Amino acid sequence: NPAIQEPILRKYFGIPEEEILFIYQGYMTRGRGIDILLEVFCNMAPDKHIVFMGFGNLVPRVQEYERRYQNIHFHPGVKPLEVVRYVSSADVGISLIERICLSYYHTLPNKVLESLNAGVPIIVSNFPDMAAVVDQHGCGWKVDVDKLAVANLVARLTKTEIESKRSAALAWAKEH
Q1: Cβ–Cβ under 8 Å, residues 50 and 120
Q2: pTM of the predicted model as reported, rounded to 2 decimal places
Q3: Which of 72, 102, 122, 136 has its CB surrounded by the most CB atoms within 10 Å?
Q4: Does residue 115 contact residue 86 with C-beta atoms inside 8 Å?
Q5: Beta carbons of 19 and 47 less than 8 angstroms apart
Q6: SS3 labels along the chain
Q7: What's the pLDDT tens digit per position in 18-74?
Q8: Cβ-proximal residues to 125 (8 Å cutoff; 6+ apart), any chain
C-alpha cells in the first residue's frame, strides 16, 4: 500500500523527519544525470538529502561524494520486489535522463512509474513522455537537464509543496 511510508532510508542514514529526502534509484552510469545531481547536492542546504540507490560504474564516484558531504548517501541496489518499499521512504524521486540520444529523449523510465507506484512525487527531465505524466497528473515537477535549473528547483521545494504533489502521486498509484 503506497499510503504507508516506512522510514527505512531515514533510519538507515539517520535523516530527521523534518528534512527533505530525495532518491535516485537505478543504474548509475553516463546519461542518467548523476554528475548533475552530485554537483547540485554538494552545494545544497544540509537539510536536503539525496540517496543514490542502485549499482553501476558511477557508484565509486557517488561514494566519494558521500564521504565528503553529509547530505549525499549511497545505498546498494535492492531486490526488484523491495524497490517500491524503499522508494516510499523518500519524499521526492528523481529521474534525470540526459538527451544523449533520441531514445533517451522519448523514454518513460520504469523509475518514474516505480516512484509514483510508491506514492512519491517525482522530478523528471522536461522531455515529452516524462513531462506528459507529470503534467497530466500533477504528480511532480519537470526540469531542464541543467545544473542551475535542477539546483533552483531542489532549493525551493518545501514539505508543503511536496505533500500536495504526493497526494497526486497517490491518486496516480490508485488508478494504475
Answers
A1: no
A2: 0.95
A3: 122
A4: no
A5: yes
A6: CCCCCCCHHHHHHCCCCCCEEEEEEEECCCCCCHHHHHHHHHCCCCCEEEEEEEECCCHHHHHHHHHHCCCEEEEECCCHHHHHHHHCCCCEEEECCCCCCHHHHCCCCHHHHHHHHCCCCEEEECCHHHHHHHHHHCCEEEECCCHHHHHHHHHHCCHHHHHHHHHHHHHHHHHC
A7: 999 999 999 999 999 999 999 999 999 999 999 999 999 999 999 999 999 999 999
A8: 33, 95, 96, 97, 98, 99, 131, 142, 143, 144, 145
CB count in 10 Å sphere of residue 168: 17
Residues across the chain:
176
